[in-house]
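FORM 7B: Structural annotation worksheet

SECTION A. Query
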Amino acid sequence: MRNLVIGDLHEPASRVGYLQFCQDLYYQWDCDGVVFIGDVVDWHGISFWAKEPECPGPADEYKLAKLCVRKWAKAFPKAKVCIGNHDERPARLAKTVNIPEFMLKPYHELWDAPGWEWDYRFTIDGVSYRHGTKIGSSSIHPAWNLMNKIHKSCVIGHFHSRAGIKWGCNEDMRFFGADTGCGIDEKAFQFIYGKDDPLRPFISALVMIDGIPYHEPCPIGRGEKYHDSRFKKRSY
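SECTION B. Predicted structure
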């Protein structure tokens, strides 16, 4: 398998050039599969935390996010999607008022992406893929921490400022923990909570070839290929 692993998007608040970056990686690496590592959408409007008044309400946010997701589904019509903590906010909120999950639309129907398979975790070529919500403290190597808990190589998202691969081996095998990075626009109101954080989101993706990870940072600096100035301002 040659899988492209796409970082957290938090639509409608992804980086304007991130879709093009991921499409380019898919063809450059001759990929035959795609894994979204989770938090495809943000659902700020139904957050359990304080909401930013500049952000749209739930209905408008859904419309905007769906337009964005539609572009990703057009680019990658077949994909596996790890369910992230933001993706499942409607289901979590419904449970607080005793509404069972079977009464809600399934993810692929909600986002009009019939070719996307949604689940909490996948195993491909012996590697565990999951969003990373439940692994506890992030530290500097959150994927490595998870790898030591589940005793197998893994790929996660969730921690926006963590990206890269940490390797280890014993007398029988090699193993790794890979942090995907993300594709978010840190200037969006959804992320204003982190405006004073000295660690910034790391925009990147992974390519997995037969279970071996390759980390691809996105060149987003001024004058680089995927800098915001090279793309039209999002109009949704």
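SECTION C. Observations
DSSP finds five helices and eleven strands in the chain. The two ends are 33 Å apart (CA to CA).

SECTION D. Sign-off
Analyst initials: ____
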